[in-house]
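User: Predict structure, ligand 4'-deoxy-4'-aminopyridoxal-5'-phosphate.
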Amino acid sequence: MSSVTIPPPACMLRPLEVPFRYLFGPGPSNVPPRILAAGGRPIIGHMHSEMFGIMNDIKKGIQYAFQTSNNMTLAMSGSGHTAMECAVFNIVEPGESVLVAINGIWGERVAEIAERMGMKLIIKIMPAHCFLEIHPYLLRALAKHKPVLFFLTHGESSAGLVHPMDGVGDICHKYNCLLLVDSVASLGAAPLLMDQQNIDILYTGSQKALNAPPGTAPVSFSERACHKMFNRKTKPVSYLLDMTHLSNYWGNDGKPERIYHHTGPVSGFFALRESLAILAEMGLENSWSHHTEIAEYLWKGLEDLGLKLFIKDKDLRLPSVTTIAIPEGYDWKELLAYIMKHHRIEFTGGLGPSVGMVLRIGLMGYNCNKANAAMALAALEDALKQCRKSKA
Ligand code: PMP
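Assistant: Predicted complex:
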């Protein structure tokens, strides 16, 4: 047998170094010690009865956070994108149509996922970053194209926009179309009621207002959605994301035994359980009003600095992620680099269609308090003094 020819890399012989950062961007958010500690508990087997008990608790926590009594509620092993793909892969069969509202980058992503799967028809409605009273467009598109799924982002983190959800599900159901909603950036920060708003599939991520580490993604399917996905003629393209297997892994299929499908992120599930417990202790309504109160304090402070908020209408602003129009006479990358270097604070630029148009500040969950908002404002004020390129 030949011997090892590649030596251990020098970096692997040095200890891990992780700097401290104030994560005031659109996510991930800082993880509070209580959640970090939960994630640091000793591992147990992913198929142990105690683990199933913890997964059952997570299911209850998600049902509360989503305001749903759907049995088909679980957490994906993976980030928000995993839940996004899981929903599209399981609901739509080849040749069927999908309707996507693009009000920023997340609609673009879902359209691309659907395009890659060779779905028959994708109609993109809504200009980027704009709120549109979508009901009339939706009615026309549903009647004309008969899609099986309509996608809408609730909290558009690239635009800083929260899209009103009332009535959308009712319209979809009139045309036998399922409503898929992305709440990765808004869950826990802005009101959303899955059952009352007739949402068929809702997903979020662990790393935003829930303050868990990235890597798990709560998702829930209505009875209507279950009927569609469990009566399909073809198997979904992904084995890993096949809801037939995942529903058994989460004990949702009524079978007496759970059979090994994949090894879930045990530590990630511990952390997610703790984050859902914190939300349950605080109460959803308190969490929503707290995010709004802090966001309003931040918005006022930004306007006092002479900055312009990107979303003009206060009611359409996402409380968790604020978008600021890049002030004239500044290089946005320089502003961000200055704030990171001198204040250890992460803000970010735009994403997808909003690149070069906005700066984004996210104050979510544990990070959402007046002291952090004041710190963010002071850092921005300092950067505005130091980084001016030209007199506007
Ligand atoms: N949707 C929205 C609204 C998001 O803000 C994000 C993350 N920025 C995602 C989806 C994707 O989530 P993830 O990065 O966890 O895959």
